[in-house]
């Protein structure tokens, strides 16, 4: 009996010991293979490097790689979930045991027309966020488009089919970038198919051109220095004015003058920009615009109020837009919410916050917007809805608020699509409809008609803005 008691005691001890043994330790190392939640990526990290792959249901294409030391500051692991922070966005990845088998297969012909079509179509099927909003029947669009591709199809045929799909999808951030040769051949084909019509030739303005014309007319005292992307100074009666032409191109890359002369500023800039990892791109853009805004706010701090003109601004980087906007914000506040399409639902919601400035400008601010105010400029307008000292004048923004999910086809063509949904704090989405204004000036929808209406009577344009401000101030 005593022996049995001893054996029972030992057995009980072992059971308790096993029961109290801690679970397998969490693996909090960033090394390994990670699959994104909602963005069609796999990230492979080892001790010294990282490598991104764009994936669909059947393809796995190398995207971006670099030294892991460049990216570790933005990475955090918790419960086998990798969180990567870029600007205000957080991207989540789950650990997987190995790369999908098709990541190790190189038998596919990367230039095969049907293969490239299927990669494009599958990416849209899995990630496009606005099928319902835009009343798109994907199955019909896919079949009808696929039937236009056959064994004799050329790259030009492929490009025209993909362009047609993007147009039918009504994707605000949808784009496809073929080679210059393919683009040129496609344009020639399109032009040859159009009936020749004699039309009155009207002056056409570029975004940067019209914004410069307006700023030169508005400014009584031009204080602009060290940039061509913005103009600022004072109008009559000590009114501050800031003209913002774009929400990107602000990083200081110390570009080679000879390359800029040969290839143009934007092309040379983008070559330098694309050589950086995602985190460095954001950091340098924010540093560049922050330095400019320090100067601008110092120059305009004693003005009665400030007008910010983004009517001709087609967008860029959200972080740039919010770095500008925060100079008029006194307290950290939530300004929006975002989520991304994931399988048949969405990723978890991510709140977006506007940080405060150390010495914010809290006097009245008037944001001028139009239907041409798009993308990151939409984001600025969306965020402005939470600032009590800011009023919007003009017409609603473009409504292209989702980030552009950047992808690459097997043949090397870049393309992008809208995979995210942004809302205000009350879950209202402004995609397509744009962010509304406090004072409507009924600008024309058509881009060139709008630009010409401004350029043809600059004084009338300015007076309408100042009259709107006077009415808003008297409310």
Automatic annotation (TrEMBL):
Q: Name the residues that span the membrane.
A: none
- Domain spans labelled Tail specific protease: 252-442
Family annotation (Pfam families)? Peptidase_S41
**A molecular function (GO) term:** serine-type peptidase activity
SUPFAM superfamilies cross-referenced by the UniProt entry = ClpP/crotonase (SSF52096)
Task: Return one Gene Ontology term, BP aspect.
Answer: proteolysis
Q: Which Gene3D superfamilies match?
A: 2-enoyl-CoA Hydratase, Chain A, domain 1, 3.30.750.44
InterPro entries, from UniProt?
ClpP/crotonase-like_dom_sf (IPR029045), Tail-specific_protease (IPR005151)
Q: Which PROSITE patterns match?
A: PROKAR_LIPOPROTEIN
UniProt cross-references to PANTHER family, sorted A to Z:
INTERPHOTORECEPTOR RETINOID-BINDING PROTEIN, RETINOL-BINDING PROTEIN 3
- Please state what the protein is called: Peptidase family S41
Originating species: Cellulophaga baltica
